[in-house]
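Hey forum,

I'm writing up a methods section and want to include a predicted complex as supplementary material. The small molecule is zinc ion. I've pasted the protein sequence and the SMILES. Can someone with a working setup run it? I'll credit the forum in the acknowledgements.
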Amino acid sequence: MSMGSSAASKISRRNLGRSIFPLLSQAVPKPIAVVGNPFQSAGMIRPLLRTLALAAFLTFGAGASAQVQTPEKVPFVLKEVGPGVYAAIDGPHHEAGSNAGFVIGDDGVLVIDAFFNIDAARALVREIHRLTPKPIRYVVNTHYHADHTGGDQALRDAGAIINAHRNVGGWVRTNNINLFGDRITPELKAKIEALPLPDLVTDKDLTVWLGSRKVVVRTVLGHTGGDLTILVPDAKALFTGDMLWRKVPPNLIDGSVHEWVATDADFAAMPDAEHMTYVPGHGDVAKLNDVKDFRQYLIDLERLVSEGRKRGLKDDSLAQEVTPKLKALHPDWTISDRAASFEIRYMDQELAGTKQRPIAQPD
Ligand SMILES: [Zn+2]
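Reply by user p_vandermeer:
Happy to help. Structure tokens for the complex are below, copy them as they are.
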């Protein structure tokens, strides 16, 4: 592709510099091994309750998610968040690279995101086949970032049509390289340049019918400029992609905090939000209070950076001022100094009007 010389690519290379993708970068240097479910031997699995109607009522009626026993060792924890609706939550060592999920309908399965690690995506396919004989018909990428699209080929090999926002096709093989900065390796570059392009793209909301089961794909603003969410109304479940992170700082590299805060306000204002389950892009299954907590983090970040800027602080001095305050306001989050420094830098750029984002792509 010729996108390597696009404005978006130049912007990314210039502005993003070194290690701009902390979570993903951590996952890059070594091949990712498929490791055991850390909870499997800890007696935390609800033993097969989901097979019983009464148990299903108790489980979902309480708004909880039921952890699913996976006979195979997999690099994610599978949780049934509603009848036939599963979240695949990345393990504690981030072997999968992000969260994913799937919805089993009357006549097929729709998968949400494909992890970074293609072996994790293959394991997800096996788990789906173990749970249902229905065909995997779609994978919907919530956005182009490689930690959500890296395993797309495994889903395509399983029969899925790859669906994404219309901008994803122009970004997935180019901007993902820039995300790694100088941590890119020849192997990783080759992998990214060979990522599948989406088969079906949209810049409008879509309704997907899995038989009688309705799934709503919505375009939203904030994380990359090409973001989708996936709502399963009958299960009160929303797969947010990276519009929501739970108790960890988000990747703001391509984002607009201004837009992001508005989108998360919409999440919190959904009908019956108190009973919704939100599956974030990173972090564990979330509820309404987590959406509010995450949104507040973004608001706090913007306020603290804005206050520092008014005092004339910039770069390292701004980070040194804001980081401890941000941690103090969110003591139950995992916020590394490194992650905070990226958050503050990107927020500073946005407030200065110099933040440059990927450029919308023509079809
Ligand atoms: Zn992302």
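Some notes you might quote in the supplement: The two ends are 14 Å apart (CA to CA). Residues 288-310 form the longest helix (23 residues).
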